[in-house]
Amino acid sequence: MRAHVWQTARFDQAALRKARALCLLALPALLALTSAPAQAAGIDSAYTKLKLDACAVLKTYEEDGGVDLKCSGYRGIPVFVSEGDLRTTVAFGKDSANGASFGPFNSPGETVEWRLSGGKPFAAILRFHLDPGDGSGKTVSVLGIYTIGDAGRESCPVGYVDASVNKNANVLARQVADEAARGFTCDVDRPRYHGAVSELGGSATAVRD
After folding, report:
1. In the chain, what is the straight-line distance between the N-terminal and C-terminal CA atoms, in Å?
2. C-alpha angle with apex 124: 121 to 128, nearest 5 degrees?
3. Domain ranges of the chain
4. Which of 78, 69, 75, 73 is nearest to 107 (CA)?
5. Tens of pLDDT, residue by residue, the chain (209 residues)
């Protein structure tokens, strides 16, 4: 009888050790599933270069040396860039008068981040470099988040993140894009800054006007 009880206890302990081992093997997979909500939701990023010298010239303006450009974006989606008086406005997918700019002199960065849902872009993020033009050499960079225009929908700024005073500016800009861009209505909703804002960085005309 004692032998039988001892063998049963020994069997139970072996089964318990095996169950614990299986749980430990399954734990990494469970953690991976819970640590990537964006991927589970089908949201991802793609990147394209914005090289103004390679863009098509749509129109030039003699009075201020301005120019309207049409550039190639993600999978052929056009990026419209207008430069004049050392300031830049942009629109994605569809040319628009809602591009807005900044009060100080500014220029766009060379990389566009496209936020995708199920492989389809719903927002674009572009960095701008702002210069007060006073010879101080003081510049800041601001991330602009934009809707993507198509039939029946305009392209316009959804919000801004001042990268000079926010350590995780790119992460915050993606969050704004993911949460606000798809439900944003141009000419109705008003863009705003997210996170901390510096005096120079907080000069987006779409927010101030």
Report:
1. 90
2. 165
3. 2-35, 40-208
4. 69
5. 444 433 444 435 554 455 454 444 443 443 343 333 444 368 999 999 999 999 999 999 988 789 999 999 999 999 999 999 999 999 999 998 788 999 999 999 999 999 999 999 999 999 999 999 888 888 999 999 999 999 889 999 999 999 999 999 999 999 999 999 999 999 999 999 999 999 999 999 999 76
Map residue 1 onto helix, strand or coil: coil
Kind and range of the H or E run holding 90: strand 87-92
Question: Which residues does 141 contact at the CB level (< 8 Å), separation at least 6?
Answer: 109, 127, 128, 129, 130, 163, 164, 201
75 φ/ψ sector (left φ>0, alpha ψ -120 to 50, else beta): left
The set of residues, in sequence order, having a beta carbon less than 8 Å from that of 202 and lying 6+ positions away, is 162, 193
Report the DSSP pairing between strands 157-162 and 192-193. Answer: parallel
- Cβ–Cβ contacts within 10 Å for residue 190, how many? 12
Distance CA 89, CA 91 (A): 7
CA angle at 60 for the pair 131 and 55, rounded to the nearest 5°: 75
Task: Look up tokens 């350590």; give the residue.
Answer: 167
Q: What is the pTM of this model?
A: 0.80
Strand partners, 89: 82
Among candidate residues 129, 112, 107, the one with its CA nearest the CA of residue 201: 129
